[in-house]
Each structure stands twice: as structure tokens, then as C-alpha cells.
UniProtKB/TrEMBL annotation:
Signal peptide: none
Record protein name field: Alcohol dehydrogenase iron-type/glycerol dehydrogenase GldA domain-containing protein
Keywords: Oxidoreductase
Residue intervals of the Fe-containing alcohol dehydrogenase-like C-terminal domain: 195-276
Residue stretches making up the Alcohol dehydrogenase iron-type/glycerol dehydrogenase GldA domain: 10-184
Keyword Oxidoreductase: yes
UniProt-recorded Gene Ontology molecular function terms: alcohol dehydrogenase (NAD+) activity; metal ion binding
Keyword Plastid: no
């Protein structure tokens, strides 16, 4: 067996039920003023997650600015608007709170808050210009409230260009979150259908990473455990939404799937899926 790989995984992961509270005391926040990015829906406000995050951050001496326009399929116009808000308010890091759309958008906003031009200038596929991201990104903190994308532990962000209907993934070492806080209690309110859809997203991220020619020993290790956990616990989480053990297992599998995407890659199925949506 030939062992040859590149392992880079800089995200600090704080995982566990109730760990959202650690925002009030953690020394690992990468700045003093955060742009908090959430979706245009009302779930973050309805369930009190946004209020809690802002309250805990205030207790930790962190100022916050809210950007709450993200769509289920995030668009480049909102990336530009969020980046302008971050710059205008002198934010020194970005927090993505919510599902994959919010955290992906937080990554893209963090990139454009540091780099000139338009977002699609830096996209290397489709109608993008493939310019180099020379100035990196603002530090990113990911707080997922769903279990599926694994975006809290991968560098990728998927944004849509509305003029051409292109939906393209993008990212680099600069867009890996510096901190991920994964609290399964935030996932207890997810309805059964979305629990299933999101869980299968994590399943395929891991399965594809295992099958990819870019796989490596570490990605295989995480992928196999994620697939095993999802197979065992996702049906329970779907049928018993308040079962914290099942929610925790699926949440960890999702986080693992992000690590798999960082160390390996997806295969053609994901690009096909983007084209079909």
C-alpha cells in the first residue's frame, strides 16, 4: 500500500449538546466585531437562536452586525451586499448561523470583504474569470443548525449567478472556518422531511469522498464512520425528532462529511445534481 497524502484541517471544532453557550466565554473567537449571516426566513429568530448568539457574543465583548437576506440557493448579489456591509461596519470576522446556505454565504462574504471586484471574477468555471484570491478572507465562524452539508468543516461555498443560472462551488484554504460550534440541540426543531434530506446529503458527501480517486486514509476513516452513523441513527432522528442521541450522531456524521470533502472530494453526482436544481 502506497501512503501519500496532504492532510490540512485547521478548523477548531467545539461539539456537543448545549455548547452554543460557550460563545459567551470562548477565547477562540477570531475578532471583536462580527457580521452575523442568516437566511431571510424566520427560523433563527423564531427559535431564539439569533438572540442567543448575539447575547452570548455581547457577554464575550463581541459587537455584532446582522445580515439576514440569504436565500435557500444563495446568490452573488447578496454576497456583494453582505461584503459591503462587513466593510462599511469594520467587521473583522464573519459568523454563518443556520444551514448550508447561510454558512456558505458567510464564507463568500468573508472572501469578498477582503478582495476587490465581483464575486464571479474569482470563479474558475463557467463564466468566471478565474482570478487569484490574493488577500484571503476574513476569519469565519460556522454555527450549523442543520445536519447535512458539513460546510462547517470544509472550504467550499456554492453560490448562484442569477444572470446565467450557474451554480458553482468555490473555495480554498482561506475559506475554511477557523471555528465550528456544533450544538445538536439546535437541530431538534428540524421537521422529519428536512432531517431526511439533509442527512442523505451528508451520506453522499461521505460515500463520494470514499469512492473518489482523491481519497486518503484519514478521509476514508471519517467517511466510513459517517456512513455507519447515518445508516444507524438517521431513521431514528427522522421518526423521533427530539431524540438527542440520534440528533448528535447525525450531527457528528455531517461534520465528519465536511472533513471528508476537505481531504478528498465529491464525484460527478454532485455536479449533475446542481445542473438539475
Amino acid at each position: 500500500m502506497k501512503l501519500e497524502f496532504n492532510y490540512y484541517m485547521p478548523t477548531r471544532i467545539i461539539f456537543g449538546a448545549g455548547e452554543l453557550n460557550i460563545l459567551s466565554t470562548t477565547p477562540y473567537l477570531p475578532g471583536k466585531k462580527a457580521l452575523v449571516v442568516i437566511s431571510s426566513g424566520n427560523s433563527m429568530k423564531k427559535y431564539g437562536y439569533l438572540d442567543r448568539v448575539r447575547r452570548y457574543l455581547k457577554e464575550n465583548g463581541i459587537q455584532t452586525v446582522l445580515f439576514d437576506k440569504i436565500l435557500p440557493n444563495p446568490i452573488s448579489e447578496h454576497v456583494a451586499e453582505g461584503a459591503k456591509m462587513a466593510k462599511d461596519n469594520n467587521c473583522d470576522f464573519v459568523i454563518g448561523l443556520g444551514g448550508g446556505s447561510s454558512i456558505d454565504s458567510a464564507k463568500s462574504i468573508a472572501i469578498m470583504a477582503k478582495n476587490p471586484g465581483e464575486y464571479w471574477d474569482y470563479i474558475s468555471e463557467g463564466s468566471g474569470k478565474g482570478k487569484e484570491v490574493k488577500k484571503g478572507a476574513l476569519p469565519i465562524v460556522a454555527i450549523p443548525t442543520t445536519a447535512g452539508t458539513g460546510t462547517e468543516t470544509d472550504p467550499w461555498t456554492v453560490i448562484t449567478k442569477t444572470e446565467t443560472n450557474e451554480k458553482i462551488g468555490f473555495g480554498g484554504d482561506y475559506s475554511l472556518p477557523s471555528l465550528a460550534i456544533v450544538d445538536p440541540e439546535l437541530m431538534l426543531s428540524i421537521p422529519p422531511d428536512f432531517t431526511a434530506y439533509q442527512g442523505m446529503d451528508a451520506f453522499f458527501h461521505s460515500a463520494e469522498g470514499y469512492l473518489s480517486i482523491k481519497n486518503q486514509p484519514a478521509s476514508d476513516m471519517y467517511a466510513l464512520e459517517a456512513v455507519s452513523l447515518i445508516t444507524k441513527y438517521l431513521p431514528i432522528a427522522v421518526c423521533e425528532g427530539k431524540n438527542l442521541e440520534a440528533r448528535s450522531a447525525v450531527a457528528w456524521a455531517s461534520t465528519e462529511s465536511g472533513i471528508v470533502e476537505s481531504l478528498s472530494s465529491c464525484v460527478s453526482h454532485h455536479s449533475m445534481q446542481h445542473a438539475l436544481i
